[in-house]
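tool_call: predict_structure(chain=1)
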Amino acid sequence: MNSLAKTSSILLIFTLFQGCEYFNTTTISPKQVKEQSLWSENDQAPSFMECDGLEGDENIECFKNMINENLMSILAENNFTSTSILNEEVTLTLELDTEGYFSLGEVEDNADVLTKIESLSDILQEAVSSLPQALPAVKTNVGVKVKTQLTLPVRIIASPQE
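tool_result:
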């Protein structure tokens, strides 16, 4: 029985050593990860259903135009008033998540427009969140939907309250 236990132990150890080749891992350097994460021409930019079927620059232009039209229509509904005449630009950072929903990230406001028009921040937030659901960007080399950030300059024109 003792020799049977020794033989079994030797066979078990031999089998374990043979199975170790299945545990080899491939190491990917941070440089390789960074290179594969960069945006390439093969990747699919975000889009809207209305732009689907358009290729390359036409698709991107359609996407930008739809965002502009939707935001401008909401902003045009508001008659902005301020303490002084304003004709300034704010830059919006729009974030598009992996499900295709927009949210307002940062607002770059070098001219303090947000403090001069008290409701502007809420209106911008509402305008961005009311954008239609988009088709998110896709990193095609791994087939994964990715988050996207877009910057959009917006000119705000307001007159003093009467």
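agent: The longest strand covers residues 148-160. Proceeding to next step.
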